[in-house]
Amino acid sequence: MRTRRYPSDISDEQWALIEPLIPVYPGGRPRRTDVREVLDAILYMLRTGCQRRYLPEGFPPRSTAWRYFDEWRSNGTLDRVHDALRRKVRTKEKPYRPRTTASVDSQSVDSTSGGEQRGRDNAKNVDGRKRHIVVDSMGLLLAVLVTAASVDDARAATELFARLDGQPMGKVTRMYADSKYHNFRLYGWVEANTRWEMAIIRPTRYPALLKSTFSRSARTCPPSTPELVEVGSSRSWFSGSGPPLAGR
Fold first, then answer.
1. Helix (H, G, I), strand (E, B) or coil at 192
2. Residue 142: which of 123, 119, 161 has the closest Cα?
3. Fewest C-beta in 10 Å: which of 11, 48, 59, 88?
């Protein structure tokens, strides 16, 4: 039994929301693993960035933490938990405002490990991977995609946007993005497959590079659009957290 608690541990209120979402399989032997402790172990590694072999004593074995993480990632449990927590945050907003905008952006990060999803982003001078995210106007995550850093943002956007299926996008009418997403093929895909339009933020130094309107599904906006602040905050959260199960 673990006696030391950490800031990353989930609260009783959070556990009451999460516990019903943890799958229970009928038949077989009763589960002896404390699933809440497993979740605390995963969150500890996520927040501190420590490798599994350095998991403090008192947590479940590192192999158990990895097994549950891999299972929950594969069967959609982590997605369901995330969506439930996001709904909880939204319902607490006072006064309630319908979310009519979203934002997309990417971030290239160095990575020393091998694998297919690794490349060089010459613009950022980064060798590694690129994280593509879509957030709502509160900065809450809607979709994420990881690619090699060499993958063009606009090319990855179609796969990223396809992952919005099933997310709360019903009231969204505009997707904010910077000039990296100025791509006519992307505009055509958005117009054919979504109910919202792309809104490209003009560069502050070279506003003449972008026309006032590209198509029905893409238009430019002033550089001070507040939604980009939210996506920037979400990227900062990613940067402040290490990989959840590094050192596998």
1. helix
2. 161
3. 11
- pLDDT one-digit tens code per residue, 45-60: 988 888 888 888 889 9
Domain count, the chain: 2
Q: Grade residue 190 by pLDDT with cuts at 50, 70 and 90.
A: very high
**How far is it, in rounded angstroms, from Cα 47 to Cα 242?**
6
Residues 114 and 187 in one domain: yes
Question: Nearest 5°: CA angle at 121, between 159 and 147?
Answer: 30
Q: Do residues 130 and 155 both lie within one domain?
A: yes
Residue 199 parent element (H or E): strand 197-201
Structure tokens at 141: 């995550």
184 belongs to a structural domain:
yes
pLDDT of 247: 33
What domain range includes position 175? Answer: 96-200
Task: Name the residue type at position 36.
Answer: R
- Label the pairing between strands 126-136 and 119-121: antiparallel
Averaged pLDDT for residues 136-162: 91
Q: Are residues 74 and 110 in the same domain?
A: no
Query: Which amino acid makes up residue 73?
Result: R
Rounded Cα gap, residues 197 and 212, in angstroms? 14
pTM of the model: 0.71
CB 41 within 8 A of CB 59: yes
Beta strand extents in 25-177 (DSSP E only): 101-110, 119-121, 126-136, 141-148, 174-177
